[in-house]
Amino acid sequence: MSSTCFLFPGQGAQFVGMGRDLADAIPSARELYERADAVLGYDLARLCFEGPVEELDTTDHSQPALFVTSLAALELLRRDQPEVVANCTHAAGLSLGEYTALVFAGVMDFETGLEIVQQRGRAMQDASEAVSSGMVSVLGLDPEKIAELCDDCREDQVLRIANMLCPGNTVVSGETAACERLAEAANRAGAMKTIPLAVAGAFHTPLMQSAVEKLTLTLASAELSPGRIPVVSNVDAAPHTDPDEIRALLVQQIVSPVRWEDSMRWLLAQGCEPFYEIGPGRVLKGLLKRIDRKKLCHNIPE
């Protein structure tokens, strides 16, 4: 018997106009944006539907925007294929997307999840502004080689692997000058391409430590419940339903590498198929195809 898995995207998948068709067509999706306004204190629907892109792309705005829009996309699937939603057995989300997965799994309700995501985005934005930093995607080199290059290029700065996404796609995070040295070294070492990412700072590194401290306080007061299905953590690529474990892992996630490839391989080992990428973009489907191109993955919305 197959096991259906829902995947939720992370920061970077946002675009101006996302969610507009969902809100226009589905009353329950529109209601999510209205409920979000009450939590956030600003018009999230306007920001998602109309921009401006510079405002939407900031960490403190893009994270709540993706969280709500992905859950709005889930309402589309709930309307059109309720049996798929009812029979889903596993969930996972890329970095920020893990919070969306946890709401779907019943670990936290919508308002609680959104409040945490808002605080998380603000804390990460503040940490990013404290030190000039960024992230670089390295294509075509294995992680072991990239780790060596990080050691060679780090000098006295922060530089480390932040995301292990799929074979041949690893993201490095660190201080700006160190990232620039790493990109040059990776190109010399035979990388197919290095791509500076449009993010505020060095996510999933110790440069986010101040965000850890703020998120710890936020999560300590949040009401979490046992998950009705397991959600695979980015930190250890293992399934979790226990609220205390999840709380601790969400704190660690801020400064820990995202083990997305390992997470997908664990899900594949459980026999998961089909997969559904729920929310803006097609990134997670593409990563899955690089891990196992035969596995079926639907995008919601298409």
UniProtKB/TrEMBL annotation:
Family annotation (InterPro entries): Ac_transferase_dom_sf, Acyl_transferase_dom, Acyl_Trfase/lysoPLipase, Malonyl_CoA-ACP_transAc, Malonyl_CoA-ACP_transAc_FabD, Malonyl_transacylase_ACP-bd, Mitochondrial_malonyltrans
Listed GO MF terms: [acyl-carrier-protein] S-malonyltransferase activity
Reactions performed catalytically: holo-[ACP] + malonyl-CoA = malonyl-[ACP] + CoA
Keywords: Acyltransferase, Transferase
Sequence ranges assigned to domain Malonyl-CoA:ACP transacylase (MAT) in this UniProt record: 7-299
Active site: 95, 204
SUPFAM superfamilies for the chain: FabD/lysophospholipase-like (SSF52151), Probable ACP-binding domain of malonyl-CoA ACP transacylase (SSF55048)
EC number: 2.3.1.39
Sequence similarity: Belongs to the fabD family.
Record's protein name: Malonyl CoA-acyl carrier protein transacylase
UniProt source species: Lignipirellula cremea
Lineage: Bacteria, Pseudomonadati, Planctomycetota, Planctomycetia, Pirellulales
